[in-house]
Prior knowledge:
The complex is a heterodimer. By secondary structure, chain A is an alpha/beta fold.
Amino acid sequence: MNPWKNRGNKPTRTGFGEGIAEAGGLEPRLVVLGADITASVGLDLFKERFPDRFFSLGIAEQNGMAVAAGMVLAGKIPVFSTYAVFAAFRAADQLRISVCYNNLKVIIGGAHAGISVGPDGATHQALEDLAVVRSLPNMTVLSPCDATQARQAALMAVREINGPVYIRFGREAVPNFIPENLSFVPGKAQILRNGNDLALVATGHMVWETLQAAELLAAEGIQARVINMHTLKPLDVTSILSAARETHAILTAEEHQIINGLGSAVAEVVVKNYPVPMDFVGIQDSFGESGQPQELMEKYGLTSSHIYQKALSLYQRKKSIHL
Amino acid sequence: MRAQDRELLQTSRSIREWVIRSLAAAGSGHLGGSLGLADVFTFLYFSEMKHKPEEPQWEDRDILVLSIGHVAPVLYSTLAHAGYFPKEELLTLRKLGSRLQGHPGRDHGLPGVELSAGSLGQGIGVAVGWALARKRDHHPGRIFCVTGDGELQEGSVWEAAMAASHYQLNNLVVIVDRNGVQIDGKTESVMQLEPLSAKWESFGWKVIECSGNNFESLGIAFEQANQKENKPVVIIAKTLMGKGVQEIEGDYRWHGKAPDTIQAQRFLEQIAVYYESMEK
């Protein structure tokens, strides 16, 4: 049985919004920029509490990103949150030059990431945002696994991280299972389940699916280590290499294209230092489509049973090599 | 000619000469726009802006956001003349390890560089953010932003223009380098900008037009810019690309070119001729 208790489903964006509102009370320099979807990205809470520190900028993401950069230079800590497709793509040039090249502490929220956005379809399902943001110098990339962790990530971004931070979250309510007292340290992955037969490295909402998959594997006597890679950059190289050395097989899982996401990041480390068999759960180089979140997770191969299936064949592959 | 204008004229002459020298030393870079903007930069740093070269991060300073990053040579030459760093360093422009990057780079440590910029249409948005935060804090300093005219073809400029007037940013002054040319030719044939004043006005800005190569005209323009209404101000400064070097004036082929040493010598001679005629 999965030892982690779901305390009730909750969207990660809500946790992010709570974290930012909480940080607003602690940090007077914190300001929030709105791009017409303030409530939708969880920031209405901050707006209600601190109306004089909220700035509406309309449907103009390129300007929003540049304005955020200017506000840092004027001594503020701005939060600019919009849908991940806009944060990472529409405003990509402003993100690259005005924010990252200038190395300015803008907290960027990438909302509605992943296929589970659902009925809105391909235009609004960010499946390539991690590829963009993790390749930008100076950037920290966080991808919390539930609402509790999203709140912790928001607080940590305000308090501890210097330079630009991208925090990715989803739309749907997902299991909220990380205990409040499990500390969140950016760049330090969390081992949520021990095991030495293979390692499952997941990020975002896929961590929960992966924990479920690990239980399916356990029922067959295969003990999987589950690693919550909540920070894609800087990547926790130590935990990846320990997993490679101790389990000799790594499966990654993400609600993102296989190309240039978590799997690629992990593979870059593994291939260079300690090559072991790997496989990847994620979107296979295609756009999404409309549908209910769960239907899409099924169709695009992102559920716990898909993870279980791939993990099983990866484990068998490893055994055949090591016999 | 007013005495202060005579002084500005001397300064702008040296700024132009060092622009030519630094570009010749670099072997690449943007000469035309840099020469065209020499008077605007001279006016800003030697007459208009509150700043302390000995204390570049002085809290109350006015800010210059250079949106049109490729005219970095005139920014660098002006900063050096203002005392931010030695003029000799201008000869390291675009070289490996230099603090003088091809387009301004903040993290390369050159004092006086406020923003890394070079991708057109972004600096004005940053300036709006800076001005908005300062206005909210009742900060006394103003934000100046220099943009190109071809740059105004970027849609993000108009997003920023909308936001500046929405927030009544009367601490923001944008200076448009209206030289009428861009890489592919005349702005009006590449992508029409006119009626340019009407565009800014319709976005809620106070518009001032002036000659950007004439200190008296610049003086009047900035004086008008200081008469505070609850609006951001745009100064459309008509300039001549390559101003001061007769053989390249108005020639868009010199947008992104640097002179070789022989050309540089000739250009410096033409600068001398230009300033002798101005001083008469």
